[in-house]
Amino acid sequence: MPKAEWQLGFEARASFRSGEYLRALKYYILLCMKVSRTAYFANVVLLLRRLGLNEYAEEMNVTAWNASASILRCFVKSPVVVSLTSYPRRIGTTAVTVRSILNQDVRPDELILWLSPDQFPGGIKSLPDDLQTLQKQGLDIRWCEDNRSYKKLIPALKEYPDAVLVTADDDVDYHSTWLLELLVGHLLRPKDVIAHRGHRVCRGADGGLLPYRQWLKEVPGSLPSFENFATGCGGILYPPGSLHPDVGDSTLFNEICPHGDDIWFWGMTLRNGTRVSLLYETDFRLCTVPGTEESSLWIQNVRQGGNDRMIQALLQRFPEILSRLPPCAHAEAKVSIIVPVYNTASIHIQQCLRSLLSQSYQNIEILCIDDGSGLWETLGCLQRFLLADKRVQVFRINNGGPASARNFGISFATGEYIAFVDSDDYVSPHYIRDLVAAIRQDGHPDRQVAVAGRILCFDDKSQSQSKPSGYEGLKRLPPMEVAREAIHTTGVSCNKLYRSSFLRENGIRYLNGERSFAEDNYFSALVAIYARGRMGIADESCYCYRQHSESITKRIDWAGIQSAALVYEKLKAELVARGLPDLNYWHSAINRRALKDLRYNAKGIDSSGDAMANVFRRFSSRIDVCCIADDKYFLPTAVFLETIRASLGPYTTVSITVLVPQGSFAKMSSLSGQSSEKFSVRVAEVAVDRFEGLHKYDSENSFCMASPSALIKFVIPEIFPELDRILYLDTDLMVRKDLLDLYMAPIEDVYLAAVTDMWMPVTDRVEVKRFGSYFNSGVMLMNLAAMRRDEVPEKLIAAKARSTNFNLMDQDVFNEVCHGKVLGLDISYNFLPVCYKRHKHRFRIDVMNTLYGSSYPTVEAMANDPAIAHWAGSDKPWKTAETLFAEEWREAYRRLEEAGVFVQDEQTVV
């Protein structure tokens, strides 16, 4: 069933926010086809640019603004032909497949069912009635030579040599966006064969192909590769000229691959130098038509080895196919497995090392680092394995703890990859093979780490508990957010595989001599920060972890808490020494992890509350905030500061700078008196001469409510050269919740994060409508490093100088200069009570949820409990009580009044 506009809008926005740009593009294209709205086209253009498709983006700008029905023609110039075939045993259910293709959100130019007159001697009249009826709805039934399953492509190649051909199987019910997803994939990779579903071809140590049943099956979406093997049931898109000219030679394919059209077509793509791309961010799930399974060739081709015989015949006839494949893609690289050992029971060492030596992946070295064991049982067991298998090496060092032993192992490892396994743990039979496959899944050197999908925990009583790796939900997050969440989610280092070059080039090591429950977290945090999401997940790999009641991680006392706290402090100091950009962001991520660990492990420890509070206080997260005000805005600014102070979480500290223009410092400097232990206020004077004449302010004709000092926003990156990010807030707002989550938003690839302006759905301003997502500049998390790098302050000032519209002081200019480089935030972070009050009756919740990628049940729910209330309008809470949240603002005012912040000649609240 086609989705409603609001559903598509919600999924488009949510996909965009999570970085699933291909999925978001699909939904926005659908929205453009359903509804002619400028915002949807603008979002398509933005996504095309994010995907690096600038030529298409420019063409969209020129031709597609008012041509929603032909939007795909901006991308796909060739005719799109879907081709399939059937035979008597399947023809009774073929209508189900055909109907699913005719009901696609994007229909092909042609849908052709190729049949053999030898199999249907009665012609059209011998076909089922429902299939004949579908001819009136767009099905074209044609007759051709009987070449079995090859009929789905070979005749179409001859009839449509310049078309984009898509093959389908006659026993699958395809979801409504099946074809659109293939076309979006074609847009991104126009020269590649595109498939929804496929396997990964694997070579053995001898250089030949492994048996078909040992290939990696149904691999997730990947970059184009000769190793990708497209399977026809998911549908395959062939661009013009993608197959070798021999593809249609019936003598050849009947001799070499008589029952393996997928194998033949794969071979012809490789002979032609064409790669296969498997779609990611797809909704495809194999849904076969009931009653068709028994007629498949699966038993003959897979179980009885038919595929392997056809593959060997293909390679013997065309040996150049094998030369296209990377040599021994999953068997050549050596893996160094480092096993720290200290007085481990013989039975546990044996289970550990046997699980490693029996791995299906054989090219390994096992470095057993004996950390000064004193048990002859342990030493003797290691000696027996050393003599039994040349892949085992034993090193004996002075006792320094597992961290020191692992560092020693890293120094002596010779493998391309490194894994850590503790001596009383063990792993699943294909553990290393699956991790290597995951790290090399796309044949891409940027993937630095692979994570085992499962951890199986055992206790002393052999009771087990299966746990996920902690990375499952991170796959689609932006890189910095992946790193932050990885630091917070799991510190385990033994369930992963690392490129050894990655560890060495980035100087990633364990903290030597450390013995605490946080020992892994130092190493794992550095891995997360430098990997930045360049990770693969091996879903089937399982690391089996034995939990002893007497282990370091279980012996929690006050000394252990202090030792763990020291680990995190040393980690933060290490990041300072490395000069890591955006240091405050990473310190906040580490503080969050430290507090999680310390609070969990501190339960039940008999220690004074003050001592524990002091430990926790060491991991408060500092956020940097700035605002702009002049001496006419003293009262609102003071209350604004008080709302931030009152909203602080228990482990958040704020450093806030109030920027004031020349002449306002004398009066505004007293605001620094609001500082407290966790809340530092500084007032800084800024020269505003450079903004002279930028804003032609006319009190009678201009509707601009902001002071000209608001132009100081343009040069905030220059004012704070030591910071990489800062949270800018207008002073006519009230902060109602802790700002740490907002401050930690991932802005690595954008200039700023902001909230789409609530006026956008109800305003008629041309300046707003030309943007797909026009944001309010009253709350901005600014990426100062990126803005300085790209000279954004100069661009803002220049754009303001060119502007001829003075309704707003700075907001239009920020939207113009930063367009396409803005991360959208939830409406909760910049809720406008005035807009809500005046236009509540005009808001539709489906439109609002689409705009913000949210899921509020009603418009009222959206206004219930925002983190920031912003009175961007004339109804200020110090002027009228008839505005939402005014009483909360006035309560903050009363607190300051009782503290003597306001003097007699100061403004008063009406």
From TrEMBL:
InterPro entries in alphabetical order: Glyco_trans_2-like, Glyco_trans_8, Nucleotide-diphossugar_trans
GO MF terms held by the record: hexosyltransferase activity
Domain of life from the UniProt record: Bacteria
Domain Glycosyltransferase 2-like intervals: 336-503
Gene3D superfamilies found in the cross-reference section: Spore Coat Polysaccharide Biosynthesis Protein SpsA, Chain A (3.90.550.10)
Coiled-coil ranges per UniProt: none
SUPFAM superfamilies membership: Nucleotide-diphospho-sugar transferases (SSF53448)
Swiss-Prot/TrEMBL keywords: Transferase
Entry protein name: Beta-1,3-glucosyltransferase
Organism this protein belongs to: Piscinibacter sakaiensis (Ideonella sakaiensis)
